[in-house]
Write a structure and sequence with these properties.
407 residues; alpha/beta; Aspartate Aminotransferase, domain 1; Aspartate Aminotransferase, domain 2; 2 domains; eight-stranded mixed β-sheet; three-stranded antiparallel β-sheet; 18 strands; 17% strand
Length: 407
C-alpha cells in the first residue's frame, strides 16, 4: 500500500508541473468505436433516416432483451420515455408519485407533465439511492387506505406509484421496495436512465417494476445522441406506449387521431447508432468498473474523501464516479476542489441541486429530507468517460491528491 501511495504522490507532482498546458478532460462523453459509421451509412444509402426503419425495430428488440424485458419502445429522449411510462401506467392529474429528491429534474418534471404531484423522498448515505426505510415510514405513518385507494393524509390525494431513480449506475434496494409496493397497491415506474447494465441480485432493475424508462443521452454509458427507451413485460403497456409516441395515430392513411399523442419517436439514424453502441455495452461497462477501481486505488488512503461503494449482491456500472468530501478533513470543500480541477483543465461537477430547493418544486411535499442536502454540498463527480485513458485519469487523481497536500 505504501508503494501505491508513493506512485500517486509522484503523479500529483507531475500533474502540478504540466496542468497549465494539459489537454481538456471532459466529465463524460460518447465513445464511438464500433459499427456506428457503417450502420449510419447504411441508413443514408437506403434512405431510411426518419422514425421508421429496420434499425428502430432491431434496437427495440435487442435492447429489451438485454435488460430482461419482452418489449421495448424507442423514444426521442429519456424524458419522453419517462413521460410515456407514466401515461401508460395510468398516472393521472392529482395523483401522487414518490420519487427521489436527489435526481436530475427530468424525473420530477415527467410527473408534473401528467398533472400529478411528486412526493420527494430522501436518499440513504451509503449508496446515494432512495431510502427505502423512509419510504416504508411515509407509507405507514402518512397514508391510509380509503375507498379511493391509498391516500396521503396531509394532501388528500391518492398515492399511486413509486419512481425509484437508480442514480450513478447503482440500483435502489428493489426487493423491499417491491414488497412495499405490493403491500400498498402501488406501481413501480423505474427511472433507469443511468443504469444500463446495472444488476440487482443478478438481474436488471427492470425485474422489479411494471415499466421502466432509459436514457441514451450523449453523456450516458451508451448513446443514440439523444434518445430513450420504454421497456416492459406487459404487451398492452408496450402497445399503448407505441401508440402515444407516434401521435396516437389510429389510421395512418386518413390521419385519424382519437386522442392527443406525441412525436416522441426515435429516428432510424439514431437507432442505428444505438444498435452499434449496444454491441459494445459489455466492454463499456467493464471500462466504467475499471475506472472506478483505479479511482479507488488512487484515492482510498486520503483523509476526508468518501469513495463510491457497491452494495452486496449488486453490480454497479459506476456511470459517474462520485466522491463525497469532508471539508474539515480534506482541507477544502467540493466547490473549491471543482475550481481547482477546472484550473487544471479537468471537468467535474456537483450532484444535482435537490428538487425541494428548485423553484418549481419548493412547495412539493418533501419527506424527512436530511441526507440529500448534505450530499449535494459534499459530492463531486469526476471524469468517467468510457474513453478515459490511464494517463488522463492519473492527472485527475494527481490534482485531487495535490489539492489536499497543498492545503
Amino acid at each position: 500500500m505504501h508503494g501505491c501511495v508513493s506512485i500517486w504522490k509522484g503523479i500529483a507532482q507531475v500533474s502540478t508541473q504540466s496542468e497549465k498546458t494539459a489537454t481538456y478532460i471532459p466529465l463524460s462523453v460518447p465513445h464511438i468505436s464500433g459499427n456506428e459509421w457503417e450502420y449510419i451509412k447504411s441508413c443514408l444509402d437506403d434512405g431510411w433516416v426518419s422514425s421508421v426503419g429496420a434499425f428502430v425495430n432491431r434496437f427495440e428488440q435487442e435492447f429489451a432483451a438485454y435488460v430482461g424485458q419482452k418489449f421495448g419502445v424507442a423514444t426521442s429522449s429519456g424524458t419522453s420515455a419517462l413521460h410515456t411510462a407514466l401515461m401508460v401506467a395510468g398516472i393521472e392529474r392529482d395523483d401522487e408519485v414518490m420519487v427521489s429528491d436527489l435526481t436530475f429534474i427530468a424525473s420530477v418534471n415527467s410527473i408534473t407533465y401528467v398533472g400529478a404531484h411528486p412526493v420527494l423522498m430522501d436518499v440513504e448515505p451509503n449508496y446515494l439511492q432512495m431510502d427505502v426505510a423512509k419510504v416504508a415510514d411515509f407509507l405507514g405513518k402518512e397514508c391510509e387506505h380509503r375507498a379511493g385507494g391509498l391516500i396521503n393524509k396531509s394532501t388528500g390525494r391518492r398515492v399511486k406509484a413509486i419512481m425509484p431513480v437508480h442514480v450513478l449506475g447503482h440500483p435502489v434496494d428493489m426487493q423491499p421496495l417491491r414488497q412495499l409496493a405490493d403491500k400498498y397497491g402501488l406501481m413501480i415506474i423505474n427511472d433507469a436512465s443511468e443504469s444500463v447494465g446495472t444488476l440487482y441480485h443478478g438481474s436488471p432493475v427492470t425485474r422489479w417494476a411494471e415499466i421502466s424508462a432509459y436514457s441514451f443521452n450523449g453523456n450516458k454509458i451508451m448513446t443514440t445522441g439523444s434518445g430513450g427507451m420504454v421497456t416492459t413485460d406487459d404487451e398492452a403497456f408496450a402497445k399503448r406506449a407505441k401508440y402515444l409516441t407516434t401521435q396516437a395515430k389510429d389510421d395512418p392513411v386518413e390521419y385519424v387521431h382519437e386522442e392527443v399523442g406525441y412525436n416522441y419517436r426515435l429516428s432510424n439514424l439514431q437507432a442505428a447508432l444505438g444498435v452499434a453502441q449496444l454491441e459494445q455495452i459489455e466492454r463499456f461497462v467493464a471500462k466504467k468498473r475499471r475506472i472506478a477501481a483505479r479511482y479507488e486505488s488512487g484515492l482510498k488512503d486520503m483523509r476526508g474523501l468518501c469513495l463510491m461503494r457497491e452494495a452486496p449482491d449488486v453490480f454497479s456500472t459506476y456511470w459517474l464516479y462520485t466522491v463525497q468530501i469532508n471539508a474539515d478533513e480534506y482541507g477544502c470543500d467540493s466547490r473549491a476542489l471543482m475550481a481547482r480541477l477546472k484550473a487544471a483543465n479537468i471537468e467535474a461537477r456537483p450532484l444535482w441541486r435537490p428538487m425541494h430547493l428548485l423553484t418549481p418544486y419548493q412547495r412539493a411535499q418533501a419527506y424527512k429530507i436530511e441526507v440529500t442536502d448534505v450530499l449535494y454540498q459534499q459530492s463531486l463527480s469526476l471524469p468517467s468517460s468510457v474513453g478515459l485513458t490511464d494517463e488522463e485519469q492519473d492527472r485527475v487523481i494527481g490534482v485531487v491528491r495535490n489539492t489536499a497536500d497543498a492545503l
